[in-house]
Amino acid sequence: MTLADFCARCGKPTARFEEHGRPRARCGACGWVDYDGPKPAVGAILVRGRQVLLSRRAREPLRGLWDLPGGFLEPGEDPEAGIVRELREETGLAARVLGLVHVAAGQYDGAGTLNLVYRCEAEGEPRAMDDSAELRWHDPRRLPEMAWPHEVAAIRAWLAGQAE
Ligand SMILES: [Zn+2]
Fold first, then answer.
1. What separation in Å is there between the alpha carbon of 39 and the centre of ligand 1?
2. 72 alpha carbon to ligand 1 midpoint, in Å?
3. For the chain, which has fewer Cβ within 10 Å, the N-terminal or C-terminal residue?
4. Can you give the pTM of this predicted structure?
């Protein structure tokens, strides 16, 4: 849990309370409530031949494990624009979104996430940049050690759709 100790609106201290069995923090001065809502994140399934592009994490948490290219949305950012931006930052590719594959809750460093995985396509050769240490095409049926279980589920969901 990462409830705020101080109010995001006025800066005064907050106090913990429970609502519907969930912990919250409320500002004693102005009444602002921190619900500790999940952070939205986007990921991409890019395919070449029968392989999926994975990125080895350059940073903590879970540095060295593999994940789908992607990241957190910016405030107010359209999710499809977000995954196109993340792919540009992390792989150098100008990608196009083909469709939504999978939506799932997850965890990142003790905080909740809501993860949207899109099937994307792009021309050209990806180059590892930003928070990617290495990019590699992998057989989706023989995945390396993945950082996030929800991404394994997303890849399986995509594979299941391919088989139909
Ligand atoms: Zn306040």
1. 22
2. 26
3. C
4. 0.90
Residue 26 CA to ligand 1 center (angstroms) comes to: 8
Per-residue pLDDT tens for 5-31?
Answer: 999 999 999 999 999 999 999 999 999
Separation of 36 CA from ligand 1 center, angstroms?
Answer: 16
Is-catalytic flag, 134? Answer: yes
Residues 152, 106: contact at Cβ < 8 Å?
Answer: no
- Name which of 34, 35, 54, 56 is nearest 44 in CA terms: 54
- From the list 80, 123, 134, 151, the catalytic residue is 134
Q: Are 83 and 72 in contact (CB under 8 A)?
A: no
**Predicted confidence (pLDDT) per residue in 81-137, tens digit:** 999 999 999 999 999 999 999 999 999 988 899 999 999 999 999 999 988 999 999
The single residue listed with the structure tokens 């997303």 is 154
On whether the CB atoms of residues 96 and 80 are closer than 8 A, the answer is: no
**Residue 61: is the preceding peptide bond cis (ω within 30°)?**
yes
Please provide residue 50's backbone torsions phi and psi, each rounded to the nearest 5 degrees.
Answer: -110, 20
Q: Which residues are CB-contacts of 147 (< 8 A; sequence separation ≥ 6)?
A: 57, 61, 62, 65, 66, 67
Neighbours of 26 (CB within 10 A): 17
